[in-house]
Design brief:
alpha+beta; 3 domains; three-stranded antiparallel β-sheet; 17 helices
Length: about 575
């Protein structure tokens, strides 16, 4: 659950056509020049005078390329722009280097009834404690008055995302939406297939044949037995953000698996209830397959101690020929394989079917952490107004919240430069941009996220908002790009775009998590232990340290050590919230 925080978001938006001042009752007022005709200002055009301050908190991971020399989180081109043009001052109540430290800050504030930031992120037990302490601002009225119509639509369509932050019929937080359409595709070294005269595998059996060939026939032609078929991280179990093996589970069962998160995946049990997929009998089929591949040398023996990034290094170094993951892997990390082998050609292929013809993959969660607001926050409409501006950037000039000042980008010399009338955002040296105009001295692009999103925690996105653009470009690569979303998809390399098309075409195969409730008391008490038990048990079977029959012992231990309590809590919730 902690990993979901990596792209923290604190969202929502203003929708009134009354030029902010008429709606705002929090002490600030907006100013700005009106057209001579006396028409109301556009919704995007507002400024607080005098300026208002919104406080927040952030986990500063010290990302490279985030700021120019002399700039920082607290003082940079965008914070200055916000104050000068919007009348919004961003202040950090705390800046910490670890998510655990942020939790400690919140717990301390709750313990002594201390001040909370105006807006921040919360999940799990921290979120439960905030709700129980009645320290959060109810958002129902603000959503109705100020939310961008597209956000309102998403909140209505994916209403289940709100159950965890709903108390006594009121909403106290906003889900941090993700785009969602990053479902797994099967990446394979096409050049290796061709070298070994192999066809792309259409079934699990054919995939095993490919893994065997990649592992034993020296496809990188270095004369050493250093290849494996599959690059996979097993440190945290079957489900991860990259390199996951959900496809293997989905080819063998309709039960999806995760061992590293007690809230994922709960599947329908066939009797009207839910069961934790990792303890369902079908998990044995996944374990049997993975154990067989490990024993035969098709998987790196270090997979059990590798995370997603570490596993990808094996593929990038030209030592593995198959890896599962999102469509964007075609640029990073797989695109870097050409540094080791100039002929490297990773391509995405449709998912392999199991012996009964099953195909399936996990539905990537479309939300994770929540954006919440202190009960004492006085400027919720201003936060929404700023969020609207960022969300509208995806949809282009036709959106009423789109700020034309950002038509080319956010800040010239930062996320873009102009040369001969052309907007350039990457490859500044190749495009002939003079060194002194590069955003950074080494010619690399700036990571603008830390500047743009201190109040929203990440780029505002909505579920599947780029799906239509992917379909459009997959069908016609020369199609006119009309919105920033389409322009962004157009910027994908050919491997990424093809993979995105495969992912969208196979979206119907996604298996969703059925539990969307809060972290239960049982999860809070037993979850960490059970996650560790499940992950270690799966690894011991995959590595052959325990026989497949040990799975039954693991299941008994799972239920004995709190799994029975959690299962009851989940099913009690499901009875009340079943769609």
């Amino acid at each position: 659950m902690k990993k979901q925080r990596k792209r923290i978001i604190l969202l929502l938006v203003l929708t009134g056509t009354l030029a902010l001042a008429g709606c705002f009752n929090s002490g600030g007022k907006t100013t700005g020049n009106r057209p001579e005709s006396g028409e109301a200002k556009p919704i995007w055009d507002f400024k607080y005078d005098p300026p208002i301050t919104i406080t927040t908190a952030i986990v500063d991971e010290n990302r490279p390329n985030a700021f120019k020399p002399g700039e920082s989180l607290t003082d940079n081109v965008h914070t200055r722009w916000m104050e000068e043009n919007l009348g919004i001052v961003t202040k950090f109540d705390w800046i910490v280097s670890k998510f655990e430290d942020a939790d400690t800050k919140i717990r301390l504030a709750l313990a002594v009834n201390g001040k909370l930031p105006d807006t921040f992120n919360a999940e799990g037990d921290i979120l439960k404690n905030l709700l129980q302490a009645d320290r959060l601002l109810p958002l129902d009225d603000a959503i109705e008055k100020f939310a961008h119509p597209k956000l309102k639509e998403a909140l209505k369509k994916y209403a289940y995302t709100m159950t965890e932050v709903t108390k006594d019929g009121k909403i106290y937080g906003l889900p941090r939406f993700s785009e969602g359409n990053e479902g797994t595709v099967m990446w394979i070294r096409k050049d290796w297939l061709e070298k070994l005269s192999l066809n792309p595998p259409a079934t699990i059996s054919e995939l095993e044949h490919v893994l065997k060939a990649f592992s034993e026939q020296d496809p990188n032609r270095n004369g050493q037995d250093d290849e494996v078929g599959l690059a996979v991280p097993l440190k945290e179990g079957p489900w991860s953000w990259m390199g996951q093996t959900d496809v293997i589970a989905g080819a063998l069962s309709t039960q999806m698996l995760s061992t590293s998160d007690i809230k994922l995946f709960w599947n329908e049990d066939g009797h009207g209830g839910l069961v934790y997929g990792a303890v369902h009998p079908d998990a044995k089929r996944y374990l049997e397959t993975m154990a067989s591949w490990m024993a035969k040398g098709y998987i790196d023996r270090n997979a059990g101690i590798q995370d997603s990034s570490q596993a990808s290094e094996l593929a990038v170094k030209g030592l593995a020929g198959v890896m599962f993951g999102p469509f964007w892997m075609g640029a990073w990390p797989l695109g870097d394989t050409v540094k080791a082998d100039r002929e490297a050609d990773w391509q995405a292929y449709p998912l392999p079917a199991g012996p009964e013809g099953l195909k399936g993959k996990a539905q990537k969660p479309i939300y994770g952490i929540y954006t919440v607001f202190s009960k004492d926050f006085q400027h919720i409409e201003a936060w929404f107004a700023y969020y609207n501006k960022l969300l509208a950037q995806n949809f282009g000039p036709d959106d009423p919240y789109f700020d034309p000042r950002f038509a080319k980008g956010y800040h010239e010399g930062y996320d873009y430069v102009i040369k001969d009338g052309k907007v350039i955002t990457v490859n500044f040296a190749t495009e002939g941009v003079p060194n002194e105009k590069w955003p950074l001295a080494d010619g690399s692009s700036m990571d603008m996220r830390w500047m743009l999103y201190p109040l929203t925690g990440g780029a505002p996105v909505l579920p599947y908002m780029n799906a239509e653009a992917i379909k459009k470009l997959s069908e016609n690569s020369d199609a006119e790009m009309r919105t920033p979303i389409e322009q962004g998809i157009k910027g994908l390399n050919s491997a990424q775009l093809a993979a995105a098309g495969v992912a969208i075409a196979e979206q119907v195969l996604e298996i969703p998590n059925r539990y969307h409730g809060p972290l239960t008391d049982g999860m809070e008490k037993h979850g960490v232990f059970l996650q560790k038990l499940a992950t270690e048990s799966f690894l011991s079977i995959i590595y052959g340290e325990k026989p497949l029959s040990y799975f039954d012992e693991f299941v008994a231990l799972f239920y004995k050590n709190g799994g029975d309590v959690i299962t009851k809590e989940v099913n009690d919730w499901y009875k009340e919230n079943k769609p």
